[in-house]
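Request: Could I get any protein with tokenized structure?
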Amino acid sequence: MENVTVGTGAISFDDVVAVARGGAPVVLSDDALAAIDKARAVIEDLAASPTPHYGVSTGFGALATRHIAPELRAQLQRSLVRSHAAGSGPEVEREVVRGLMLLRLSTLATGRTGVRRETAELLAALLTHGITPVVHEYGSLGCSGDLAPLAHCALALMGEGPVRNAAGELTDAATALAAAGLAPVELHEKEGLALINGTDGMLGMLVLAINDLTELLKIADISAAMSVEGQLGTDRVFAPELQAIRPHPGQAASAANLTALLRDSGVVASHRGPDCNRVQDAYSLRCSPQVHGGVRDTVAHAASVAARELASAVDNPVVLADEGRVESNGNFHGAPVAYVLDFLAIVTADLASISERRTDRFLDKARNHGLPPFLADDPGVDSGLMIAQYTQAAIVSELKRLANPASVDSIPSSAMQEDHVSMGWSSARKLRKAVDGLTRVLAIELMTAARALNLRAPLTPSPATGAVVDLLREAGVGGPGTDRFLAPEIETAYQLVADRSVTAAVANVIGELA
């Protein structure tokens, strides 16, 4: 697997995904090591000074007024990390921990934090060897950085605390380091603070969510196209000249996808022309580009915020190496990231909501234009996809609750020194649940629309949507017929969405969607 090189500049979205999800090894560039050395020299000069400097020779937070003697500073760093590794609750996913470790390393590589090169190199080595500290669900207020999650990672650099090795087995840090031929570090002045003071957890989860939502927006266009087709809707409303008079870029992209997906559809062609009495389709069909496009534009805005954050050096205090000084700042506040995380949870819920509405129309005999109730084989004896829609509805209801913003909350901490916090970690955690829920909702719409298209035979779907129907059938998601155990089929459809098989099937026919 190709190395990801961390330098002094911004790390890319693709690199974050490659390390977090793909397990890519990590190396520091020569310019990063030079910047780290230059900043460290500043810290060592300040450490030798009789004048107290915050984060170098003082306590932290509300205890910053105490000057720490040189012989106690190693203990100070150990105590900081141990006391801040105070998370609780379920274990956080491996990809999230790897993402936050990489992003902390990226900030260290800017030469703004003052750590020693051996500390940064050990963090890179943990990523390369697949050693993942155990981080817990609760512990971050999203201000002064994701303190507790990052402290659990810093603890591992000291050879302490639980970790998982590359095989996913639970062990202790000292054992895992030794097995990889690595030695723990003793943290020096400023290093403990530099390792825990960043927005890396919430930012990593934002990048992963943007990666997922970018894919799911294509799935939403695919499922919407299948629903329009299966419900005998029109494709005329997706014409580019209609989108041009309301020039939102996301709307235009979604409408173009729908047009491409429905091209050469035998079903659509069967009711196109002067004899068609369908003047307007329901909003959930006709307005798909407007809703999907609004989500697309929101994701694009979130990506611009994430890109700026990826180019940032978030620490407090920060080293200004060229000036030979260290300055306190508030860049660790997670508000910019927290806001867009909450914004994405809102549009995720609405994207799922319109998908569920399209699905429900298939099941109602009064609205599905000649299909059997609930797409059942023998309605009354068979329930068809009735309860699959219940599952969708339950998920959508949960997504609406998850859309309630966490960033509007704040609980003062640290004896009122940290009196306003972002709750960005909480925003990120609930967005992850929302993205998973959306994946499941879209999978059920695909299942439902595929069954409807089978029931429209001998009319044929478009080549693109037909490829999705074929993919589902080949994977074991059955078509029309008597009732059967549905949960495994829903899970299969979910996996086909999540592993990008659905978009790949479409791309093989009409090329990549926008």
